[in-house]
Design brief:
The chain is mostly helical. The chain folds into two domains: 84 residues, no CATH class; 39 residues, no CATH class. Strands 1-2 form a two-stranded antiparallel sheet. α3 runs antiparallel to α4 and α4 runs antiparallel to α5.
Length: 166
């Protein structure tokens, strides 16, 4: 049986020499392609502010790409056998129980259990982007300094944003 300690130990020892060929495509094309299940690996930003949004949109079986209810579950977690034991792995029941729980401490505990199970099954591998480059025309005045993390969703355009004469 896998435990959290085993999972931590394996993750420290596991080093893969993997090379990826990345093909740059237009943003709209990227979204169309990933939703057609054309790649076994999908790099997708996850600027979601709450555990429920992350679990619901990326890990609940209803969010699997290709389903009528699809959101951003590119891994098909909830419809696959992650550990080879012959049963489908997932955390749908924990997500739904946490979502329905009115006691915040019990809700946090349920999300913690779901997170632990996801770490054991490892249907996705989260990456942290520390820096990114985003271009903007010099004649676009945002009306505020770009905030940390703005590269994930693009610049924040507000009522203060102005297009300058150019």
């Amino acid at each position: 049986m896998r435990t959290w300690k085993t999972c931590q130990s394996l993750s420290r020892k596991l080093r893969l020499g993997v090379t990826f060929e990345i093909n740059a495509v237009a943003h709209l094309d990227y979204h169309e392609l990933v939703r057609k299940n054309l790649s076994p690996i999908v790099a997708y930003p996850g600027p979601r502010p709450t555990p429920d949004m992350i679990f619901t949109q990326y890990l609940h079986s209803a969010a699997i790409i290709g389903k009528e209810t699809a959101v951003t579950n590119f891994s098909h977690y909830g419809d696959i056998d992650c550990d080879g034991d012959g049963t489908v792995d997932g955390v749908d029941e924990l997500i739904e129980a946490a979502r329905a729980e009115s006691n915040i401490e019990r809700q946090k505990a349920l999300y913690a259990l779901a997170q632990l199970q996801v770490m054991l099954d490892l249907p996705v591998y989260p990456l942290r982007v520390l820096a990114a480059v985003q271009a903007r025309q010099p004649w676009v005045d945002l009306g505020h300094p770009p905030y940390e993390g703005s590269y994930i969703n693009g610049y924040a355009y507000t009522e203060l944003t102005r297009i300058l004469k150019h």
